[in-house]
Each structure stands twice: as structure tokens, then as C-alpha cells.
């Protein structure tokens, strides 16, 4: 059976503990507008992009140097028929040493091609996971700073303005 959840991975020349610290720094790679905390199990935080997307998340697992997991508690998309598509899904970062460095495997469990948001969300995660990789590798990510950043976000904002 094929795993249909959105998954991507990358390898960096940093320690697993440095990788976990960067993942927990959600404002440094995902969005500087995140409210709340994402440092320990039970922490809750909210991510939003303009009026396009808002999600409330909780840290559900933290294994030092190995794993970080979040659950989406609530979600709203302004561009899908089912605005709650992410609700109840899990976002998992698995970290492990390889011969080439530290591998980060990102999986959004429940984000599958059947979802209306899949292509847009895949574009978003691809962009922001690259930002996470940059934060880990160079100390500087490229988080959302309150405006449309990905190609999909720009297209949605333009469609809303025209419509």
C-alpha cells in the first residue's frame, strides 16, 4: 500500500538537537505571526496567513533529538468547500542520523491528494520546509511575514481581489 500523506525529507550538517530546536522555532521558518508556544508537549499555537488560512495546533509529542509531532485542533481555509480539511491531522518531524548528516523527514498525516487544498498545501509545505532547512543550515529561515509568500498564496490573494 502506498503512503498518500504529504511527505518530504532533507539532510543537513547539524546535530539532531539543533534540528529540534529549529523546528520548535516556528516563527523562524513558518510564520513570524504565529501566536502561542511550540516548545513542549501540551503547548498550543496558532498559524495564520492573511484571511486564507488559520489553524490551531498542539504539540503532542517531543522526543529529544528524534521526533516532534503536532495535532491540528482546528482549521479554517477560506478557499475550500470544506474549510476544516486539516482538522484532526498530524504534522510529524522525524529526525535521525545518517552517514551524510541529520535527516529530517516531514509528514503531514492526513494531508492526502483527495483534499481540495492538497496542491496549494503541498506548495506551502514545500516552501516552508525549505525555509526550515535554511534555518537549520544557515541560521536564517524565510518565514511568512504577514503577506502572501508562496505562488499559491499569491494566486489566492489575486483571485480574492478580482472576485
Quick one: biggest sheet? Answer: 7 strands, antiparallel
Which structural class is indicated by helix and strand composition? alpha+beta
Helix content: 25-40%
Shape: globular
In N-to-C order, the SSE pattern is EHHEEEEEEHH
Amino-to-carboxy terminus distance: 41 Å
The strands making up the biggest β-sheet line up spatially as: 1-7-6-5-4-3-2
Mean pLDDT: 94
Based on CA atoms alone, the radius of gyration comes out at 15 Å
Strand content: 25-35%
Q: Please count the beta strands (DSSP E, at least 2 residues each).
A: 7
Unreliable parts: none
* Tally of DSSP helical segments: 4
Question: What can you tell me about this protein's structure?
Answer:
The model has no long low-confidence stretch (mean pLDDT 94). With 163 residues, the chain is an alpha+beta fold. The termini are far apart. It is 28% helix and 34% strand. β2 and β3 form a beta hairpin. A 7-stranded antiparallel beta sheet has the order 1-7-6-5-4-3-2, covered by helices on one side. It is built from 4 helices and 7 strands; from the N terminus they run βααββββββαα.
Outline of the structure:
The chain is an alpha+beta fold and 163 residues long. It contains four helices and seven strands.
Task: Give the helix/strand layout.
Blueprint: E1 6-12, H1 16-24, H2 26-29, E2 35-36, E3 44-49, E4 53-63, E5 67-77, E6 90-98, E7 101-109, H3 118-138, H4 151-162
Antiparallel strand pairs: 1-7, 2-3, 3-4, 4-5, 5-6, 6-7
